[in-house]
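ARCHIVE CARD
CATEGORY: sequence design from structure
SOURCE FIELD: tokenized fold
FIELD CONTENT:
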């Protein structure tokens, strides 16, 4: 598996874990700092995933053009 694809998958898993933390926190602890931290992590991971997805798409387009 290419390095970029692996980073993209790890990012998606991290965002999923952050979302699970948010949901558990909403129903059990109701601590605002946990909520804000998890939401911030999800936003950062989403931005990173979008950037990596665009890089993969550009690389794929370049590979299609060179064939």
């Amino acid at each position: 598996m290419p390095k970029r694809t692996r980073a993209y998958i790890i990012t998606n898993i991290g965002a999923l874990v952050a979302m699970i933390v948010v949901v558990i926190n909403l129903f059990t602890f109701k601590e605002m700092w946990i909520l804000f931290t998890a939401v911030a992590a999800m936003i950062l991971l989403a931005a990173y995933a979008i950037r990596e997805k665009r890089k993969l798409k550009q690389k794929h387009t370049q590979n299609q053009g060179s064939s």
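CARD ANNOTATION: Helices lie at 3-27, 32-66. The chain is about 90% helix and 0% strand.
SHELF: design records, drawer C
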